[in-house]
Design goal:
There is one protein chain. By secondary structure, this protein is mostly helical. About 65% of the residues lie in helices and about 0% in strands. It contains eight helices and no strands. Helix 4 packs antiparallel against helix 5, helix 4 packs antiparallel against helix 7 and helix 5 runs antiparallel to helix 6. The longest helix has about 30 residues. The model has no long low-confidence stretch (mean pLDDT about 85).
Length: about 180
């Protein structure tokens, strides 16, 4: 891959929507669905341990909804980041798999939400089928997250180039470091 192609993947398609150079929005937005869905799984499991599980069952359903909304927002910004990656590269193929897995997980959670809708009124534990679907979804989310990490940390997608990163390691009194600390 040429140096120009590599730099293309570091620059946002739209800084206003995807985040400025070296500070993309996608990584911060993905914390919402990840946190919501992992917590919903913990609540699902806990609903089988406590005496009155209804509050956990209901909370889990709403955490799933929060995760779906967060995932859709993260997907929109992530899609913009995908446009910056040159097609036909390992980074692009990895991004396509990452996106596909995330869309499948989001679809699974939409199904899970609809499957649960209204069921918590009885105060029972989360059904085993719903719990298994949540656990499988979190596992696939983990694989997708691994690929997202590969995109950022191995391929440097939307990560500032080394000369920009060097500013963080140059002593402040050095003539090379002309930027003020952020």
């Amino acid at each position: 891959m040429s140096h120009e192609s590599q730099l293309q993947a570091k620059r946002p398609v739209s800084a206003a929507l995807a985040g400025p150079y070296g500070h993309p929005f996608h990584p911060i937005l993905v914390t919402v669905p990840i946190g919501a869905w992992v917590t919903s799984l913990v609540f699902d499991i806990a609903s089988h341990v406590v005496h009155r599980p209804g509050f956990l069952t209901e909370s889990s359903q709403w955490l799933i909804a929060v995760g779906v909304i967060g995932a859709l927002l993260a997907a929109m910004v992530g899609f913009l980041d995908l446009f910056a990656i040159p097609a036909g590269t390992p980074a692009f193929r990895t991004a396509l798999v990452h996106m596909t897995l995330n869309l499948l997980v989001t679809a699974a959670y939409v199904v899970n939400f609809l499957w649960r809708h209204g069921d918590y009124a009885g105060g029972a534990s989360v059904g085993i089928g719903r719990l298994v679907l949540s656990a499988a979804s979190v596992a696939v989310l983990g694989v997708s997250g691994f690929l997202g990490g590969k995109l950022a940390y191995r391929y440097g997608v939307r990560v500032a180039d080394e000369s920009t990163q060097a500013e963080g390691y140059t002593p402040e009194d050095s003539p090379r470091n002309t930027r003020s600390a952020a």
